[in-house]
Amino acid sequence: MLKALLGLPATVWLLGLVSLCNDSASELLYPLVPLYLASVLMAGPKALGIIEGIAEATSSLLKLFAGVLADKTASTKLWVVGGYSLAAIARPLMAFATAWPMLLALRFADRVGKGLRTSPRDALLASAVDPAQRGLAFGLHRAMDNAGAVIGPLVATALLALNVPLRDIFLWAALPGAIAVALALCIREPSRVEPVTRAPFSWTLQGFPTAFKRYLLVLALFTLGNSSNMFLLLRAKELGLPDYQIPLLWALVSTVAMLFSTPLSALSDRLGRKRLILSGWAIYGAFYLILGLNGGQTWLLWPLFAGYGLFMAATEGAEKALVADLAPAALLGTAYGWFNLTAGLLLLPASLLFGGLWQSAGPALAFGVAACCALLAALLLHYWAMPGRLSSAEGKQ
């Protein structure tokens, strides 16, 4: 595998470094937002659901928009650089939020940046490698992305341990964000082998195969039970985990995902994407059931969250590689736009549903409903969307 990794194009490695720096900034703040809401802005789970749901839903719509334009214009760098720049500006400004609506506006700007860059970046990554190496390329990218997600929470933990105020910690996100933008400027716009498509955009997904459309529907069901990860951190706090350990717990998730993303995603190149995705969704369902029923055993949080990292490692790269397996090459940006739209737009009702169930009926019901969505989605993926074994070479048949 080492030889294959070293043989990947420079574009893959550069995009990975950009994600590493960007996520160092993003994940420095991510586990602190629930703490900031609860202890500084005095807001609860419902406000968290509104903030994350609206921010991610908007991001998802822009991912489709940017993906379509990337196909139309055969350009990706403008969207990538612009997206990372907007996020780098918005994150440090959260230090000056005095009420949760202001925090919502800044999270909104941060997610707009993500929406502009994600689909063009994914299309660029998929087109930069041979189809037989897509799992490996996306796995490496996710591993470097998660490496940044390890660095960020560790820095946050150290700053909390030194009694640095939460507002001051938000300002530290400016440095890695600026480095990410500088690296993004170094990306060279590739020349496309395929002619630029001028086909009109279709809300009915005209031009895409049936398997891709069914995959999106199943993904929508899974996402309905996949609300913001901040609820997981809020649950850990509720179960009695000290504040300074919250970022460390999220760093554990990212560490496991970082270590296993590349080998597991590369495994999907040989065994097929579906097997990896099904395994990951099963782990997700079990994780949510146990976390929702946990009566206060804080020691159990550490192996549980490590298992959540395995879910991320098994699915993140395989799910994105499967998009490229199923979609026409000329519509790759649009395909990732639809994928990211589906995965993110449902986060609004998912977060609102989860936050509402938690606040009105307790965490057990909220986590139980999420687990049921994941397990049902796994069954539909296996028996309806993609019956039989599907390898990367079989996607477009």
Describe the protein's architecture and organization.
The chain has one domain (2-188, 208-385): Growth Hormone, Chain: A (Up-down Bundle), CATH 1.20.1250.20. The chain contains 17 helices and no strands. By secondary structure, the chain is mainly alpha-helical. Helix 7 packs antiparallel against helix 12 (246-271). The protein is 76% helix and 0% strand. The chain has helices at residues 2-6, 10-29, 33-39, 45-73, 77-93, 100-127, 134-161, 166-171, 174-184, 210-224, 230-238, 246-271, 273-293, 301-326, 332-345, 347-361, 363-385.
Overview in brief:
The protein has 397 residues and is mostly helical.
Question: What is the fold's blueprint, element by element?
Answer:
Elements: H1 2-6, H2 10-29, H3 33-39, H4 45-73, H5 77-93, H6 100-127, H7 134-161, H8 166-171, H9 174-184, H10 210-224, H11 230-238, H12 246-271, H13 273-293, H14 301-326, H15 332-345, H16 347-361, H17 363-385
Distinctive features:
397 residues, single chain, Growth Hormone, Chain: A
- For the residues shown, what is the average pLDDT? 81
Characterize the overall form.
Answer: globular
Instruction: Name the poorly predicted regions.
Output: 389-397
Number of domains: 1
CATH class, named Mainly Alpha
Largest sheet: none
Structural class: mainly alpha
The tally of helices reads 17
CATH superfamily: MFS general substrate transporter like domains
